[in-house]
Amino acid sequence: MWSKISESFPYNEPVVDHAVLLFKKPGGVETEWHQDRAYWATRDKDASIFSVWIALEDITEERGALNLVKSNEVSMSEIGNFNNGKLIDHELIEDKKGGFPLLIKGELIPKIESDVKVVNLKRGSAVLFDSFEPHMSRENSSSTPRLAMKIAYSERADKNYYLITNQGLENK
Prior knowledge:
Layout: H1 2-5, E1 14-24, E2 31-34, H2 37-40, E3 50-55, E4 66-69, E5 90-92, E6 102-104, H3 109-113, E7 116-119, E8 126-130, E9 135-137, E10 146-155, E11 164-165, H4 166-170
Antiparallel strand pairs: 1-10, 1-11, 2-9, 3-8, 3-10, 4-7, 4-9, 5-6
């Protein structure tokens, strides 16, 4: 994956910060509006982390597709300008069902939802977004699970922990 996008990012020593399987069972609850930066600020000082969300099967709105802000969309040639956004006010919500307790404040949601793009993905396709991108996914109202993979890349500098270097991954 990195070899396809590496020319767009000015990283000296790129690493896979983390990777996770995103499984949403039928009837799985929505993941509410948040920015990853709110969670990653203490471990990514210079805001270098970005996510690649890969569909492991066709993902539709009914299955809980990713929702992004339409006006933030950029072409591949502009993608290296990632992580220049700003952190929107979040609030801590205890015992949140969607697994993300640090959420964008409720009064800010209507403005975000007026500019939403539902990202339906075909199996094997991907979407990239930075840590400042507001995003969410609705519940899975289908009878089949939603399955995706998220790989988070970053610059190695100042990292105490990362999953693997991209060079190590590409040379395997």
